[in-house]
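Re: the request from the purification team.
They wanted to know what the chain is likely to look like in 3D before they choose a buffer screen. I agreed to run a prediction and write the result into the notebook, where they can find it.
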Amino acid sequence: MTLASYEAKDLFQWLTDKEDILVLDVRNQKDFSRFQVESPYLFDMLNVSYYDFMEIEDDSVAKVPKGRAVRIICAKEGSAKYVGEILVKHGFEDVRYLTGGIKTWGNLLVPKPLHESEDYSFYQFIRPGKASCSYGLCSGQEMMLFDPSRNIDFYLDFAKSKNCKIIKTFETHLQADYIAGSRQIAEKSGAVFFGGADFDGTKAGHKAVKDNEIHTFSDGGPDVTVLFTPGHTPGSLTFIVDSTFMLSGDTVFIQSIGRPDLGGQVDQWAVLLFNTIKKVAKLDGSLLVLPAHYMDWNEANKDLTFCLSLKKVKERNKEVFSITEAKDFIQYIKDNMREQPPEYALIRLANANTEQYEIDKQEELDLGKNECAATAYTKAQDEKEG
């Protein structure tokens, strides 16, 4: 039996198809604990260090059950290939290693249709490795993007596959948890990059928007309305598409709200967010909330998309939406605060285009799930992990 490779998209498909595979992660315990593969469904995963396979080969091989299809993951690819060769030597018959290593899982984007009609098509691009979502709106031969990641080739290729030209790309806010792609996409495609007040004074090259500003396509298609929803950041935006979809950015999630403490001005930003939550609560409850992040795959619907009516989002987050006093809201935020990852300060600089990093550094900064929620849910998770 010869050793074969696989790609991140293959792994996602196997996991969502509930294939009988064993995911073997051969990174060290520290890196494995920080960031690992997650799936909508339960699957078998084993962490045995590459170094163990080097130093105690027989004992390490004995930990891997025979007769299973084994899919190996490491940091960059080489270690997984090395371990795969050991397993093949020991008689394992279906062994593959992840091309490009764990970073390819971190950058993977999975397109999911949200709406398809003669008038327009709308897509959610799920990034499983970051628990984040970006969006693409197509009408005629034009496309608008919302919160794209730095995997810019994916978006350019996707637009080409739909026979579309990217005309506009929007950011809901200055991201802190991942390196955004709007600036680079605008440079490569000629699209206009639109952003809110977060980008004022930066070198991002954005075009400012106004509250209730409406964006359209050249020939028909849905309207896109800009709403100012400050709080997660002072310049956070929400976009209403076709009076049907609410792209909420990091303001409102399906199972939480965005944390307002990332800028170090907890009280001030929390008051902004409190007022925004009250504003959002008055919007049409039939609007379908499309968040920029999710906390867990349990938030996905049967189609494995992250989309829920605002009415149901308010019900799920009634603890927050029921707060009537700003001081109580501030206390709620403080009770659920946790330290933000140190990488976030550097990511902000990259997204403001005041600092740029080599590819390897970008990969390092971008790896790992988001930490953008501020809820009792996240606090409970911390306590559980602690």
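For the purification team: The mean pLDDT is 92.
Please add any questions underneath this entry.
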